[in-house]
Write a structure and sequence with these properties.
The chain is built from 9 helices and 10 strands. By secondary structure, the chain is an alpha/beta fold. The chain has a domain of 168 residues: P-loop containing nucleotide triphosphate hydrolases (Rossmann fold). The chain has a 6-stranded mixed beta sheet, with helices on both faces. The chain is globular, with a radius of gyration of 18 Å. Adenosine-5'-triphosphate binds next to strand 2 and helix 1. Its main location: membrane.
Length: 249
């Protein structure tokens, strides 16, 4: 087990090209165990690309990414194993539409971790309880609100016992009244010591839960600071410009 405060996710000298478009430019980022890092920046700056490379939904052009001391292989069985250590929650909920809420949460543990159905279901119910949707367990995803579906997506990711959770704008597709119910679950997760990388423009969340804010622009990490430093006293012109636009919307 990695000790709290030890490097868990290490992104080193990463370059990513899509054809001749340079999407990640020499990105270096270390996230320690138990740390919550919020990634913020303008549209197209590479935030989603960074998340997707961290669990190898995208390959990288050069550099390395390691999780808990193990470098991510490009493909194969070892990759499937390491990918299971990274939980991912996207903007769209990505639940399996034709499976119940309970089945959505038990599928990975049964098929990938080889758990017994009864054991997987018992744990899934605890997780659904924790995110406040246990009473919906037998329903289909479409019968739930967006906020509830997103909380199920979080429970589903947690059921795999990930070492780190990646969130890519988890609340940006939600109606305003549902945003807080999802953020509350995330704040709780953070307080429990989960290592988290969160792409979000929710500054309330960043101030409440983040240890660090990483600001990206044009495929680069331009600035890294505590939330207080970043929001009160951004250093770069890009960050100042970005924040001024965010605040006036
Ligand atoms: N599969 C792809 N092929 C080609 N270009 C891509 C691909 N995916 C992303 N890009 C480009 O890479 C850049 C970074 O995209 P990315 O989705 O990482 O940005 P982002 O910071 O997440 O933006 P947003 O805030 O809009 O979600 C963009 O210019 C985008 O057009
Ligand atoms: Mg994105």
């Amino acid at each position: 087990m990695t000790e709290s405060g030890q490097p868990l996710v290490v992104v080193k000298d990463v370059q990513k090209h899509y054809g001749d478009f340079h999407a990640l430019k020499d990105v270096n980022l270390t996230v320690n165990k138990g740390e919550v890092v919020v990634v913020i920046g303008p549209s197209g700056s590479g935030k989603s690309t960074l998340c997707r490379t961290i669990n190898r939904l995208e390959t990288i052009t050069s550099g390395s990414i390691s999780i808990d001391g193990q470098e991510l292989p490009a493909e194969g069985k070892a990759l499937a194993h390491l990918r299971a250590e990274v939980g991912m929650v996207f903007q769209s909920f990505n639940l399996f539409a034709h499976k119940t809420i309970l089945q959505n949460v038990t599928l990975g543990p049964i098929q990938v971790l080889g758990k017994k159905k009864s054991e997987a279901e018992a744990e899934a119910m605890k997780l659904l309880e924790r995110v406040g949707v246990a009473h919906q367990a037998q329903k289909m995803p479409a019968q739930l609100s967006g906020g509830q579906q997103q909380r199920v997506a979080i429970a589903r990711a947690l059921a795999m016992h990930p070492k780190v959770m990646l969130f890519d704008e988890p609340t940006s597709a939600l109606d305003p009244e549902m945003i807080n119910e999802v953020l509350d679950v995330m704040v709780e997760l953070a307080a429990e010591g989960m290592t988290m990388i969160v792409v979000t423009h929710e500054m309330g969340f960043a101030r409440k839960a983040a240890n660090r804010v990483v600001f990206m622009a044009d495929g680069q990490i331009v600035e890294e600071a505590t939330p207080e430093e970043f929001f009160n006293n951004p250093k770069s012109a890009r960050a100042k410009d970005f924040l001024s636009k965010l605040l006036t919307h």
